[in-house]
């Protein structure tokens, strides 16, 4: 049995989405989903979305560029990440939906905005998925036993396994994310505990006494000045990519209005503990100059202690992080594509669901796009990361921007008395809403100065805009053809049922 819902009367236009009966229309978009995600799943989805390879692998190189100031950069970016989550939380309290910001953009800004929000988010995850399967392949080749195995074999295997698991049902996705997050959080908890013991006891690490003096003796908080710390903001902020996943999960969460606020509020202290706390501890246990871009800073620390197999353990952790990201991408794009299709902004095929409430049409499309990463790993394995990674940044910045803009418009509708206020509100809005949008614009500006990768990424914006314009026109034509076909089919059915009337 397949669960297919009817689309709005005018999927190509924006006005109907705002002025038709929204409750009935949006309820039809949620038909077929199984609310099987439990509070523990959502808690770990929220936590896991805020912890990834950006911390486990990226922190070493960023410590080289900015020194201990990296902790402040993580804190600033973390505050804005939290504000984005609170903006999303306010929208979820208004109406939990698996379409998330795509559905909210449709409600408050019209179908054109929904089209842009959805496809830019898809750009993020489609490109990230290619990076993820490449990462899995690279991490697997860390072990000598796999040295002679072609990289593309692992890329294909990772994509196949995670795809099958996503097709089984949302509960399986939730369990996978739960355990993936347990591995990531557990690793950081062990580091924080061990590091705190060394710091409190004053036991030497690699022949040096730990403490604040390691920061003071090596140039202070800003050893290279303030500018390098500002410039790395555009890289650090993407360490928080996936925080918006809780919004997508809301549509399949039992009692979402009760569960989501707790999960979102817990993210702030976890960011402070895991990101800021970890970096502060790293700089107080060893001089920041001891870390490099070629090695995880956690591997550097534990190696100095002489802990055996630390490289193997950390490789398992980053492998888990890559699989978690791939898992999240397939899950979220399946739901977002279905929401787009329900508004006429994507092919009807991607709206299809199986008997277990899985939007398999959208997931299969994403798998097909991710599969591009398999030949990339065969043809140019060394460059597969760089070829696609920068494009994901445009998608995530656009997504976050739409979330905040929808929150602003929702609050305005509440002020006009058109919608009911919710108890879980974005703190400090509308000031913090506009401040967050300004921050996101600032990130784009900083990207433009990050030559060559960031500069070329910003330079592609006109191409992306042109693609969206063409895509929108094609979507309108496709929606019109489907409506005409539906009308003919309906007329034929009526004629068969009532021959006299048809004559």
From TrEMBL:
Q: Which Gene3D superfamilies did the record assign?
A: Amino acid/polyamine transporter I
Residue ranges annotated as transmembrane are 44-63, 69-88, 119-140, 152-173, 185-206, 226-250, 271-293, 313-337, 358-381, 387-410, 431-449, 455-475
GO cellular component terms given for this protein? plasma membrane
Keyword Coiled coil present in the record's keywords: the answer is no
**Tagged with keyword Transport:** yes
Q: Which domain of life is it from?
A: Bacteria
Q: What is the membrane topology noted in the UniProt record heading this document?
A: Multi-pass membrane protein
Against InterPro entries, the record matches this protein to: AA-permease/SLC12A_dom, Amino_acid_permease_CS
Annotated GO biological process: amino acid transport; transmembrane transport
Q: Which residues form the Amino acid permease/ SLC12A domain?
A: 41-478
Q: Report keywords, A-Z.
A: Amino-acid transport, Cell membrane, Membrane, Transmembrane, Transmembrane helix, Transport
Q: Please name the PANTHER family in this protein's record.
A: GABA PERMEASE, L-ASPARAGINE PERMEASE
List the protein's name: Amino acid permease
